[in-house]
């Protein structure tokens, strides 16, 4: 029987939900590793809905669980029903939904609140010493909840290749150790069993993002 890995989504689409390519890469690499993905999302309204053509918010209302079900092909459960006892690891892909629907990072930065359901799940895996994989913006959840942990969101100096590098600085202000890594690399915090990679925090070819996520998934499964 392969490892059972919880994958927590935050909606569907980079600007207001989970990043679709990252989510798909996680599911593909879990399958390749012989692991069974169990997909969850919170049953809450999105902070807002963004028109992905215009990049502008609309007046629509959408539900995080309902939208995440698009990525999961309907095979999804309410995050409130997650039971850490039957699972071996946790992975949270990136996308602005992490900073908008799973936390208030998008509007409050280091002063954000992580939603209680998400915080409880992260703490449950951490307490059980089960590995947690995070990519793109999702390492900010660990930065907020696990003071002193080691993470990467890529590089800490802003440039064309690393447009979101200020995130690393904010994580340092929370007392975390940020480790600069290329998009195809991962960082492993051995003590906290956290595996992180930058994914779309980097302006890189999509296959490099895919490869970095693959290394993250492989290490999470190995640690499980």
Automatic annotation (TrEMBL):
InterPro entries: Class_I_gatase-like, ElbB
Domain of life from the UniProt record: Eukaryota
Listed Gene3D superfamilies: 3.40.50.880
Protein name: GAL3A protein
Organism: Alca torda (Razorbill)
Gene expressing this chain: Gatd3a_0
């Amino acid at each position: 029987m392969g490892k059972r890995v919880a994958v927590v989504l935050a909606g569907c689409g980079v600007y207001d939900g989970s990043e679709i390519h990252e989510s798909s890469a996680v599911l593909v690499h879990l399958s390749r590793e012989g692991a069974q993905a169990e997909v969850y999302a919170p049953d809450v309204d999105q902070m807002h809905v963004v028109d992905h053509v215009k990049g502008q918010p609309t007046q629509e209302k959408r539900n995080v669980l309902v939208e995440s079900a698009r990525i999961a092909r309907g095979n999804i459960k309410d995050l409130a029903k997650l039971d850490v006892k039957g699972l071996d690891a946790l992975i949270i892909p990136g996308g602005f939904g992490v900073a908008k629907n799973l936390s208030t990072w998008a509007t409050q930065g280091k002063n954000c609140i992580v939603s209680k359901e998400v915080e409880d799940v992260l703490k449950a895996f951490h307490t059980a010493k089960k590995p947690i994989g995070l990519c793109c913006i999702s390492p900010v959840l660990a930065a907020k909840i696990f003071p002193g942990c080691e993470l990467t969101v890529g590089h800490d100096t802003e440039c064309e290749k690393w447009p979101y590098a200020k995130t690393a600085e904010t994580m340092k202000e929370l007392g975390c150790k940020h480790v600069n890594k290329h998009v195809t690399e991962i960082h492993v915090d051995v003590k906290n069993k956290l595996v992180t990679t930058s994914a779309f925090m980097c302006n890189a070819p999509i296959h490099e993002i895919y490869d970095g996520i693959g290394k993250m998934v492989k290490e999470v499964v190995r640690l499980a």
